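Write out the 3D structure for:
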Amino acid sequence: MADVEIRNVKKVFKREATEVVALNNTNLSLESGGFLCLMGPSGSGKSTLLNLIAGIDRPTSGEVLVDGKNLSTMSESQLATWRNQTIGFIFQSFNLIPVLTAFENVELPLLLTKLSKFQRRAHVETALSLVGLTEWARVRDALSLWHLLPNLDSQSRGRVYDRLAQLLPPPAEVT
């Protein structure tokens, strides 16, 4: 069995009287260790497919299986638990909460785990150190931490997000 299987998936978005078919009879099988590049014009279903695989959205019909688990049949609560223990998200935009410090922003997803306060602190300090932001850990306006690197382009930001995403422990450590 593949690690990710998309079976006859259809995803339709309804906007007023219009139906937009984002995916239609889509099939895909992915194994661990492989590399896949999703390319296509805007509106071709790339983000929709990723949102289905991550359990953020549900197919209109068909099945989405990840590691043998059928996401299509999970309740919202089961999906939330599964996402928390299995999936890491790296967004294109900041998604920082401005009223929190850099430390608090990095710690926020860890509050959903069973890590102790000491373990969370160690993870956060390591992550901030890896991206050279230790001195910004206690700055209240988290968006200011990017002023440290005023010429940071989106590709560099992506590398920072990749590093911060590595902060989360593997699922076995979370459960």
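The two ends are 24 Å apart (CA to CA).
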